[in-house]
Write a structure and sequence with these properties.
Elements lengths: L2 H23 L8 E6 L2 E7 L4 E6 L5 E7 L2 E7 L5 H5 L8 E3 L4 E6 L2
Antiparallel strand pairs: 1-2, 1-7, 3-4, 4-5, 6-7
Length: 112
Amino acid sequence: MKKRDLILLLSVIAVALLATVALWLTGAFGAADKVIVTVDGEVYREFPLDEDTEYRIETENGGYNILIIKDGEAFVSEASCPDKVCVNTGVAQEIKPVVCLPNKVVISIEKG
């Protein structure tokens, strides 16, 4: 390996390390901290992800979803919809919300 190649390699590593530290310091790698519940495309309610709670989401069509926030995770434990896809989806993630199409409910995670 030539001296120039070594300098280039070390420079790339240094830039990558600095970028990682900068993202960490700005909170980009921090835990998501807000649960957003939308019903029919409108924000219904927001919850902090770090507070354990159970909430019944009521919809205009008479349906409901039970939202559970526990140990920094949010999921639907029960729903009035016939297929229960939202219950079986598991934990909501920043890139994977929990969706209940019959009740038009979306539960998503958002950073600060």
